[in-house]
Design goal:
CATH class: Alpha Beta
Number of domains: 1
Strand order of the largest sheet: 1-2-3-7-6
Distance between the termini: 7 Å
Bound molecules: magnesium ion
Oligomer: single chain
Largest sheet: 5 strands, parallel
Mean pLDDT: 96
Structural class: alpha/beta
């Protein structure tokens, strides 16, 4: 299997697994989890230097899920990669479980407690600064939501990253134009995010956040010296399940039994099509 097909299939499998996890827990941030899966898959399976054999290796790359509420994809990827046993996914969002609705460092492979929006990039700036000083090869990746861009602390971090020339830092914005309360441009107008980030001194790239080939190409590109990089990744909230796509109500929606079956059927059909093309 070629790399692209492998990643596409892996991403679809993670979608299936996270939906199963949300369905059985009757809780989760379904829309945002589905919108970020392709970005996470490319990072975890093709780009980042991370291994469960040595999860605290000082020279590992760091990933910060700043849009912490959409952690479902991360948990399923970490389990799939062997950071913890897959059976633990059944405890998601249950009393006493360490797999709670937002990332916690109690879970192997999670670098930072997140969920209070607007803090992930600030901490990523700290990690990137430390890496510059102590372990040169480390790269830091931070995934933010687009609704999260309304947090002032994001822009303080953006200014600092540029000031300290953090070319070892890559941020990604999951640009699905929706947040819990509706369209981002109605709640707090963000466009043009590209112009804003450029003005803050970042190298800005606009990409299709569901195009595995493009994500891979851009994330593996050599960085611009002395400049942090940000990807504005155009995505669709609820991607992969037709009735969830582009609907703010699926931000925190849990499918009924019938809806769950339909979602599984759709994703399995997509996987069969990938297999047929091989
Ligand atoms: Mg959003």
């Amino acid at each position: 299997m070629d790399t692209l097909t492998y990643l596409k299939k892996k991403s679809a499998e993670i979608r299936l697994n996270l939906l199963e996890m949300i369905y059985q827990a009757k809780s989760g941030h379904t829309g945002g989890a589905l919108s970020s899966v392709d970005i996470l898959t490319v990072l975890y399976y093709a780009v980042m230097n991370i291994t469960p054999d040595n999860p605290k290796n000082p020279s590992r790359d760091r990933f910060v899920m700043s849009k912490g509420h959409s952690v479902e994809g991360v948990y399923n990827i970490l389990a799939d990669k062997g950071f913890f046993d897959k059976s633990e996914l059944r405890n998601f969002s249950k009393f006493k479980s360490r797999l709670i609705g937002h990332p916690s460092v109690k879970v192997p492979g999670i670098e930072l407690n997140t969920g209070a929006l607007g803090h992930g990039l600030s901490c990523s700036v700290g990690m990137a600064l430390a890496a510059k000083k102590y372990v040169k090869e480390v790269r830091v990746y931070c995934l933010m939501g687009d609704g999260e861009q309304a947090e002032g602390s994001v822009w303080e971090a953006g200014m600092a990253a540029s000031n300290y020339k953090l070319d070892n830092l890559t941020a990604v914005i999951d640009r699905n134009y929706l947040q819990i309360s509706g369209n981002t441009e109605d709640v707090m107008r963000l466009d043009s995010l590209t112009d804003k980030w450029k003005a803050f001194g970042w190298e800005v790239m606009e990409v299709d956040g569901h195009n595995i080939e493009q994500l891979l190409e851009v994330l593996e590109k050599p960085r611009i010296p002395d400049k942090p990089t940000i990807l504005i990744a155009k995505t669709t909230k609820g991607k992969g399940v037709t009735y969830m796509e582009d609907m703010a109500k699926w931000h925190h929606g849990v499918p009924t039994e019938e809806q769950y079956k339909q979602a599984v059927d759709e994703i399995k059909k997509y996987i069969r099509e990938l297999d047929d093309h091989e």
